[in-house]
Every structure is written in C-alpha cells, then in structure tokens.
Write a structure and sequence with these properties.
This protein has 14 helices and 15 strands. By secondary structure, it is an alpha/beta fold. Strand 10 and strand 11 (185-189) form a beta hairpin.
Length: 462
C-alpha cells in the first residue's frame, strides 16, 4: 500500500495561517483523504442559500390562474401575467392541480393553511373560526437547518403588508405565517406590518461589518505554508481537487475585490403603514418590505423571511386597485372582476419581490434571486367555493440551480373544468420537501400524518 493511502484527513480540517496577527482558516472540498471505504462525503463550504415564504388569502380564480399547458415555456395566464410584465417569468415555476391531503376538520378558510406546513391544524378555542399550527411551517424547518449549519444574527424575519385581517377568523394559523418547534409544541411567530419597526429591529442597532476586503483577499497568501504542507501529503486526485477549490476561492475573491463593501445599511424608510383600510399603500409597503428582506440577506443578518401579504379570509380593501369596491374577502365570494383584478395586483406585488431580489447583488456579485427560493400560496384554491384542492403554488428563484431554470409549469391533473376544483393528485407537501432539500439534501421528510411527504417533486428539479 502506498504511504499516501494511509493518510486520513478530518472532514472538518481547515487550512490555517496568520494575517495581521489574526488567525485565518479556509475550508476544504470533499477529498478522498477525508472518506472511509464508502468513498463519499457531504459537501461543505457552499455559498449561502436563502428562503422566503409569501402568503395571500382568499385564493385565486383557477380559470384565470392555471396556465393552459404544462412543461417548459409555459404561457402566463391572466393572473400570472404580472410575472412576465416584470421580466421575472423565467424565475417562476408553477405547480397546479395538486392535492392537499389534510385531514383537518373543515372550517372554511382554515384547512388549506396546512399547505404551508404539511401538518394538520389543531382546533383552537380562540373564538369564531379558529385554528392553531399543528407543526412547524416550511420557513421554520429551513431556518432550523440554517441555524445548525451556519447561524445568522437573526434566525428569521416575519413581515406583513396589510393590517386588516378577518375579525372572525382566529388562532395562530389564521394570524401568522411562521411557526417553529415540533409537532405538539409549536410557537407562532407573528408578522410586523410597520416598515419602520422592521427596519429598527434589523438595522437600528446593527453595526455593519468593517470593509475588510483587503484582509479577506489575502487569506490564500496567509495559508500558503499550510497549503504547501498539505499538498505534499495528498494523492494526485486530491491535489487536483484542492487546486480547483483554491482556484474557485481566488476567483470569488477577485469578484469581491471589484465590489463595494458587502453590507451598506439602509436608511430609515420613514414609513409606518398607518393608513386606514382602503387607504393603505399596499404596493409601496410591499416594496419597502421586499427591500428590507433583501438588505437583511446581503448583510447576512438572516437567510429566512416570510411575508404575510394578506391573511386567511382577509377583509382588506385593496385601495391600489381602482375597481376594488369591497373587501378582498367580499370580492372573492362575488367571484367578480374586482376579485380577478385583486389577484392580479397580489401577483404584481409577488413579482415586485422577485424583481427586488433579482436587482440586488450579494457579496459575491450574484443576484439574490439566483440564491433564493420563494414559495407562495393561499389557503384556498377558489375563494367562492372554499375548496382546498388545486391550491395555487408558486416558486420564485432557483436556489443555486436546485429548481429548474427557466421555470416550468408542473400540472398534477389536467386543467379544471369551471365547476370542478376538487379533482387533484399527488401531495402538496412534496413541494415543501423539494424546497427543503435545497438546504439539507438528507432531510428525510416533511409533515406528518396523511400530509407527510418523503418524495420530492423531481419534475421541477434540476
């Protein structure tokens, strides 16, 4: 046996050196010297991925929402046209015709909220129509993964847009979009709809990291002696892998050297979102919240966020929509043109979030939309029928080539007939597991009971 075959290297081994009196460390790629007989190792040192959940109450009109044909190159429907108009359609994947397998007791708008967690809700005694989260939501599952891998100062952020929810729909599942913990021991995380409060909580006392690019660009030189020593002990294949890894670090450092400081703190937005129902500046509030999420990602304050645009059975009046003369909930039951245009407005706000991510670069000079996955849905398929099958499922971004780009339309069952929104196939939680696998390829399942999934939706993956 060659002497090099006896050399074993810890998977946590770092190349080390001194720079300006301070220690520096460089992670290594998976090498054969780290592996046992299985010759396999988990990847490490990946660039960060981010996640956002986006929720809008009262569903859609499926005839105006679901694209006509599945596959790549899908044509946007009337209610999905805002993504094309905003120039982000290629970053959008649609999953339609899917079955929500919840066994929760039907109480109109609540059973479908389970699409965000994969767990049946727990009946609540909060009054009126009420439910509590029965398990962690997808954003918090991903926040747990990130917290274990590479903790950020803020575990996750929760924002909202309209302040006006339903006075008769209560409980944590109706009033929040995020819930952490385990089944049976869940804590709801409620959204903040005041942009100034969000700004203050994230940046008011946050000190931006010093612009230390010159130091960071010298880490390869600082570790030169350790690199040389390690090279003498590695086999040929490992030397090639190490060389490629160091070349990629050098390339990344060259990108960083051409950029301004990685984190420029935003100013106070000077906007409270304090207007009465019907007078709220919803598009402007959504724009500011989108920018705050993007800033938080660039500064790596957090990598997980949620936006409760409008809640379950939302009674908000969309003042931005000229034709909207009633609450959004009221329009959904009328199933009128106001409902149609309200949904198009919500999709324009969703698209605006994607535009903000697309137009914001991180420290590596990459668009945030390329490193982020955004999952959007509603508690209903169609508001006037209260169905929780064929719910809208929208994925924005591709999470560093985890989801196909350009995006596709995955259709579990053929496009619906006008009066048939119950037919559906598959399992909506498959989509949640697919998203979670971008952050932990080994996570075995998402959800519980009939909703649990241990199968990804491979049709939408790279």
């Amino acid at each position: 046996m060659h002497v090099l075959d006896k050399f074993k290297l810890s998977r946590r081994h770092m190349l080390r050196g001194l720079l300006g009196g301070s220690a520096v460390a460089i992670g290594l790629p998976p090498l054969e010297a780290m592996m046992g007989r299985s010759r396999s190792a988990s990847a490490g040192g990946e660039l960060p991925k981010r996640f956002i959940s986006f929720f809008f109450g009262n569903g859609v009109q499926l005839r105006n929402f679901e694209p006509d044909s599945p596959g790549a190159g899908w044509t946007p429907s009337v209610q999905l046209q805002p993504f094309a108009d905003a120039g982000v359609k290629d970053f959008v994947t649609i999953c339609s015709g899917m079955r929500n397998r919840t066994e929760s007791q039907p109480i109109t708008h609540h059973e479908g909220i389970t699409i965000m967690s994969g767990h049946d809700y727990i009946p609540s005694n909060a009054g009126g129509f009420a439910s509590d989260w029965g398990g962690p939501t997808i954003d918090q599952v991903i926040a747990d993964i990130i917290a274990e891998q590479s903790p950020t100062p803020v575990r996750s952020m929760q924002v909202g847009v309209t302040k006006f929810d339903s006075p008769v729909d209560n409980g944590t599942a109706a009033k929040s979009l995020s819930a952490r913990g385990t089944k049976g021991a869940v804590t709801a995380l409620f959204p903040q709809q005041n942009p100034r409060t969000v700004w203050s909580s994230l940046f008011g006392e946050f000190e931006a990291p010093k612009d230390d690019r010159d130091l960071r660009l010298s880490v390869l030189d600082a570790a030169k002696e350790d690199i040389s020593s390690l090279n003498m002990r590695l086999g040929n294949q490992d030397r090639q892998r190490l060389e490629a890894h160091l070349d990629s670090i050098n390339e990344l450092e060259n990108k960083i050297s051409a950029l301004p400081p990685s984190c420029v703190l935003p100013g106070d937005p000077l906007f409270d979102n304090a207007e009465d129902n019907g007078l709220e500046q919803l598009f402007e509030t959504n724009r500011i919240m989108s920018e705050l999420m993007a800033y938080a990602f660039v500064c790596d304050i957090t990598r997980v966020a949620s936006n409760l645009f409008c809640s379950v059975a939302s009674e908000a009046v969309f003042g931005d929509v000229d034709i909207s003369s009633s609450t959004h909930h009221g329009h959904s039951h009328a199933n009128d043109e106001g409902y149609n245009q309200n949904i198009q407005f919500v999709m324009s706000c969703f698209a605006q979030l994607l535009v903000t991510l697309r137009d914001t670069e991180d420290a590596a000079g990459e668009s945030l939309l390329e490193s982020t996955l955004v999952f959007g849905s509603s508690e209903l398929s169609q508001g006037y029928s209260h169905s929780w099958q064929r719910q809208p499922m929208i994925i924005g971004g591709h999470g560093r080539n985890h989801i196909r780009y350009p995006g596709v339309h995955y259709q579990a069952t053929p496009q619906m007939n006008e009066n048939d929104d119950q037919s559906a196939a598959g399992n909506t939680t498959d989509v949640l597991l697919t998203l979670a696998r971008a952050f932990d390829p080994a996570i075995p399942s998402i959800g519980s009971g009939a909703m649990m999934s241990n199968s990804v939706l491979s049709d939408i993956m790279v």
